[in-house]
TrEMBL record:
Domain Smr residue range list: 184-263
Pfam families found in the cross-reference section: DUF1771, HTH_SB, Smr
Superkingdom as given in the UniProt entry: Eukaryota
Gene3D superfamilies to which the protein is assigned, alphabetical: 3.30.1370.110, Winged helix-like DNA-binding domain superfamily/Winged helix DNA-binding domain
Record's protein name: NEDD4-binding protein 2
Source organism of the structure: Takifugu flavidus (sansaifugu)
Molecular-function GO terms, alphabetical: endonuclease activity
GO cellular component: nucleus
Region called Disordered, residue ranges: 84-112
Amino acid sequence: MKTKEHTRQVRDTVVEKFKARFGYKKISQALNISRSTVQAIILKWKEYQTTANLPRPGRPSKLSSRTRRKLIRDAAKRPMITLDEVQRSTAEKQKPAASMKPEYQDTEDPEYEDFRAEASLQRKRRLESFAKAAEAFKQGRKEVASFYAQQGHMHGKRMSEANHRAAVQIFERVNSSLLPNNILDLHGLHVDEALDHLVQVLHDKTTAYEKGLCRPQLSVITGRGNHSQGGVARIRPAVINYLTNANYRFTEPKPGLVLVSLK
């Protein structure tokens, strides 16, 4: 069933509100449309600088993004893979399966979607570039494949840079009023980002405690994994593993809250 398409006026209004620094949530509420639709309109506008309907390059792809990634990996590992093997692999991957979340994310909390929008766009372009590289390689057009592979790496680098900027913004927004009270909240961060901030804050707070400038305990909010892929916590076990290996004394009075001794 074809989904309802919003008018050009609605799409223009979404962009105008975004330019006026409205967040996705506020735009969604004001126009009574879903957050995912708001995000799609804004990402399209960022990429093409228009809200008009663009001509389709051809019939809709029958392959999911997950299947395309599988084909790319197969082509990279086995350059001599046959067409029959590719078709069998594709058929197997196209069988109905449980919904898959993007593997690059450690959190899908909608509260932080605005900060990750640019990274999501670069990730999409990276996948598209590598898919084109795999297709060109399969056709024997090595120069074209090399070009798209380079494009994929470029978008991958931009994605990493965008995620870094997002992590800084999220950390400052969440913790600006908490850190003075020796509270560190790691919500909205990917695992590696969370650990980087944890290490830095522990160092800073330990130094402050030794100078008598703060109390001897840091409260670390890791969350319980409610917004992680499959509802499985990722930041919490990573934090506990780091604290254990670094010989910090800590307790966990309840899931998602770790109290670390700075003594």
